[in-house]
Amino acid sequence: MMLNSEETTRAIEVMGEMFPNATTSLTKTDPYHFMLSVILSAQTTDKAVNLVTPALFERYKTPVDLANASQAEVESYIKTIGLYRNKARFLIKCSQELVERFNGVVPKTRKELMSLSGVGRKTADVVLAECFGIPAFAVDTHVSRVAKRLGMVPADSDVLTIEKILMQKVPQDLWIKGHHRMIFWGRYQCMARNPKCSSCPLLDICPEGRSRV
Ligand code: SF4
Fold this sequence. Notes:
The structure is a single chain. This protein is mostly helical and 213 residues long. The chain contains twelve helices and no strands. The longest helix has 19 residues, at 84-102. The two termini are 18 Å apart. Bound molecules: iron/sulfur cluster. Iron/sulfur cluster binds next to helix 12. It catalyses: 2'-deoxyribonucleotide-(2'-deoxyribose 5'-phosphate)-2'-deoxyribonucleotide-DNA = a 3'-end 2'-deoxyribonucleotide-(2,3-dehydro-2,3-deoxyribose 5'-phosphate)-DNA + a 5'-end 5'-phospho-2'-deoxyribonucleoside-DNA + H(+). Its EC number is 4.2.99.18. Its cofactor is [4Fe-4S] cluster.
């Protein structure tokens, strides 16, 4: 049984009661540097990203600085995080494109953001939401797992389908908060390996939880 719109919204409200301060764990900066942080956060923790970005952003203050940077030097600032070679390439390329096509200013549409190197749909959604307050429901690994376990979306849904269904079921003013709450829920309550089902306030509506306890 799938959760309907009302139940999905209620579940996200319950998550908000447990995690009222759920928000991005990445250090908030200006849109340009925040976008770079989101690119760096792919398949690594926000904590690891926050450790490397102060020195990186001090060295490269503007898109022009990074557009002219050497790959090796950028790598030296981010080598403690996963996929650093690819990410260094993305940071430079993305900055070059930003300078060439957007006058160095981070665009405010998903389409334009996704035209930049290293910026996929999730990164674009996070930038729109966090930097410009534009409603988006970014789907990462936690959001995806939690939505499937709770039956908010079909178990075989891909990321785009999950995003579309959540945006249909949840009122727009809850999209950004819902994204953060589901991430916190996935990190601290409904973890990939050992979800805390027996003490979960959503157990009565959760098909996965009921099959586990
Ligand atoms: Fe996750 Fe278990 Fe809670 Fe369901 S009951 S949301 S699987 S922790």
